[in-house]
Write a structure and sequence with these properties.
There is one protein chain. Helices cover 36% and strands 12% of the residues. It has 273 residues and is α/β, with parallel strands linked by helices. The strands form two sheets. The protein has a seven-stranded mixed β-sheet with strand order 1-9-8-7-6-2-3, sandwiched between helices. The longest helix is centred in the first third of the chain and has 21 residues. Pyridoxal-5'-phosphate binds next to helix 4.
Length: 273
């Protein structure tokens, strides 16, 4: 059964006119439910979290619910694997800085010519700072996806990190990320997937992909610029004991998640497929 797009459209006041918005990189429209929930939170519970008072406890609850909703959306095994941040670019900068602590001069990092700059520049900066080498993977110009032979060749140089995209922001083409993840793991690399342009279009199952990190941008599928976030999935199997946590997020930024994600949960998307 397909998604009920009429029902979804009704939840977005800005779409209740003869208009079709295609410009998701500039930010998508907000649903009434999300906005109501944000307003309610700000009016009734506005507080920093982890405090010993009522509004703070309520903020914690909201935050936990949001982690749960996002874990469901990505089929992460635990809500604790979800991290919220400002946007994909900022979190990639943070995460790359954290991972860089384990890199040595001369280590290799795999990046691709098909990726958005947000999944390239942070790794370039790390390479510059730590004396690491970037290995560039080309795209297959006929298919518009990554060149698998070139990817395999790059892995022969045993990169410590492989950063690649799920779907191209330029072409809309989708890479075989599960296969790429397996290949990269076999070569000993940590896998960092940019799913910013795939998340609005298809179900994501981070357990099935078995990736180490997956980042996406909720303001590109269901939110406004003021509530935009990025979440990443860290698979403990591959990044054991080195969990990177960003607990400085502000609860009010995430309180709309339960509303905005409920029609798009992993289960509802898969049941409808
Ligand atoms: C594929 C892709 N990755 C990353 C980004 C950057 O996302 P953000 O604005 O959340 O930093 C974009 C922005 O359009 C994108 O299309």
């Amino acid at each position: 059964m397909p998604l009920n797009t009429d029902l979804i459209r009704q939840q977005f006041p800005s779409l209740n006119r003869p208009a079709v918005f295609l410009d998701n990189p500039a930010g998508t429209q907000i649903s009434k439910q999300s906005l109501d929930r944000i307003n309610r939170y700000l009016l009734e519970h506005n507080a920093n979290h982890e405090g010993m008072f009522e509004t703070s406890r309520r903020s914690d609850e909201v935050l936990h619910e949001a982690h749960g909703s996002m874990a469901d959306f990505l089929n992460a095994s635990r809500p604790e694997e979800i991290i919220f941040g400002n946007n994909m670019t900022t979190l990639t900068l943070h995460i790359s800085r954290s991972l860089a602590r384990n890199l040595q001069a001369g280590d290799n990092i795999l990046v691709t010519r098909l990726d958005h700059d947000a999944n390239i520049s942070p790794w370039m900066l790390i390479a510059e700072d730590k004396g690491c080498n970037l290995i560039w993977v080309d795209m297959d110009v006929e298919e518009g996806t990554l060149d698998l032979d070139d990817f395999a060749k790059a892995l022969e140089r045993k990169p410590k990190i492989a950063a690649f995209g799920y779907a191209s922001n330029l072409l809309g083409t989708v890479n075989p990320v599960k296969k790429l993840t397996k290949m990269a793991h076999e070569a000993g690399a940590l896998v960092y997937i940019d799913a910013v342009q795939y998340a609005p279009h298809g179900p994501i199952d981070v357990q099935d992909l078995d990736c180490d990190f997956l980042v996406c941008s909720s303001y590109k599928y269901s939110e406004t610029q003021i509530t935009r976030h990025v979440q990443f999935h860290s698979s403990p199997g591959h990044w054991k004991d080195k969990t990177v946590t960003f607990w400085n997020q502000i609860p009010k930024r995430v309180m709309g998640y339960n509303e905005c994600l409920s029609p798009f949960s992993f289960r509802s998307v898969h049941n409808d497929a």
